[in-house]
Amino acid sequence: MAVLAGFAFGADAPANGVWRSVGWGDVYVVEGDSWRTFEVTASTCVEGFAARRVAPTSNRFRARDGSRFSVVEERPRHWLVREGDINRVMLEPADGLPAVCSPPTANTPLGNFDVFTRTFAEHYVAFALRGVDWERNVAEQRGRIGTATTPAQLFEILSGLIRPLADIHTGLDAPALKKSFDAPLKPGSERLVRGDVARFEKSGRRELAAVTDRVYLHGRVRPFCRGQWLYGVADGHVGYLRILAFGDYSRRSGYAGNVRALEQALDVILGDAGLRGLVIDVRLSFGGDDRLGLAIAGRLTEREYTAYAIQGRSDGAEASRFSPAVEVPVRVGRGPRFGGPVVVLTGPITMSAAETFTQALMGRAPHVVRVGESTQGVFCDSLPRRLPNGWSFALPNAVYRDAEGRAFDVAGLPPDVPVVGFAEEDLRDGRDPGIAAALRVMGVR
């Protein structure tokens, strides 16, 4: 395909042309009101989502699923900015579609296998950390693929390749088979979950937390955010906030409803003039929307600072190369704020948005003390991908770095004060060593 004219991202200029994302493996073809996406590796290509320009001279686009994004120029760089996304993707002009897209990868067993395995090879961030030799495993399984391979057999081969990663931000969905693969939690999580994740989410977490509420808190434990937050007061007028999720805070769908409920809850909690300290418990949090964690952090500071910097893998042949860092700020929130001592309780079920929230507090002053155990070690939102046969899959392709350039994938965020949480003997004897240690950090008990 020839280069399309007019590589321009001015406020009113059309963003016509062929563009390549730096990291993320996408090529975009923009011509007139039309936006087409191609998901590309060195040897495969699948057509992705399509979008339309919202107005003839606008650089805002709307995809078929209703999501919106813009193309923005900040000289000398160009960026794709998705509405509601904390990250943005750097764009570079390309000479045209890669040769592998003419034509796109065929819908054959081997074509689907190659799209899946090459995408992981070029974008997944943690093979070495998880001790998986991806290329060897792929070579072993490739010989099982032939023209007679059935969809069911292909599903078992692909899911079997990612099962050893034990990475909950990976997945595979085959609607025609009515099958999906959800990755297991990393080793060590079973002690708390005990096999049935759905039961644990519905009732198991509250059973574990019952000792904390009964023994360490005074008076009624108040629910906020449709029960996803529980708040009480411990000795020394130290507030205790348990966050079970970073989402589902409001019956109104979307971020606006969630953040409104969050702000109303914090107005009450932080509006207490007698508050002497705050313990935030995310030991049982399954994650959610990173933006909500940033909103909470913004109510715990009087100055703006960097929460973390996001970098995507940018070189399929070299796993150590990443895109330019996108710094994500914690902005000072409106309403009552708390600048006093804060302790965060963490554990192996602290995952995803609960981890990015915890990481967002690392740049706060005064220092937020982490008490408990290392977190799950999954930070990046999943990169969604398609197979030629209509299946979809996902994988984490970026790292979240702290101010010193460190990322915490797989290992998780380590505690400042190590304490094992929810041990059988402690639950039996009515103890929660985690909150007890947090209160000692606060100078209580």
Description:
Pfam families: Peptidase_S41. Residues 204-420 form the Tail specific protease domain. InterPro entries: ClpP/crotonase-like_dom_sf, Tail-specific_protease. The chain is an alpha+beta fold and 445 residues long. It has three domains: 17-101, Beta Barrel (Lipocalin), CATH 2.40.128; 109-182, no CATH class; 196-377 and 412-441, 2-enoyl-CoA Hydratase, Chain A, domain 1 (Alpha-Beta Complex), CATH 3.90.226. Helices cover 24% and strands 27% of the residues. It contains ten helices and 22 strands. It has helices spanning 109-123, 134-142, 151-162, 190-193, 197-216, 255-269, 290-298, 353-360, 424-428, 433-441, and strands at 17-21, 26-31, 34-40, 45-53, 60-63, 68-74, 77-82, 89-93, 171-174, 179-182, 218-224, 229-234, 238-243, 277-281, 305-312, 326-330, 342-346, 369-372, 382-386, 392-396, 398-401, 417-418. It has an eight-stranded antiparallel barrel with strand order 1-2-3-4-5-6-7-8. It has a seven-stranded mixed β-sheet with strand order 11-12-13-14-17-18-22. Strands 10-9-20-19 form a four-stranded antiparallel β-sheet, with helices on one face. Helix 6 links the parallel strand 13 (238-243) and strand 14. Helix 6 runs parallel beside helix 7 (290-298). Residues 1-13 have low confidence and may be disordered.
Short descriptors:
445 residues, alpha+beta, 2-enoyl-CoA Hydratase, Chain A, domain 1, 7-stranded mixed beta sheet, globular, disordered N terminus
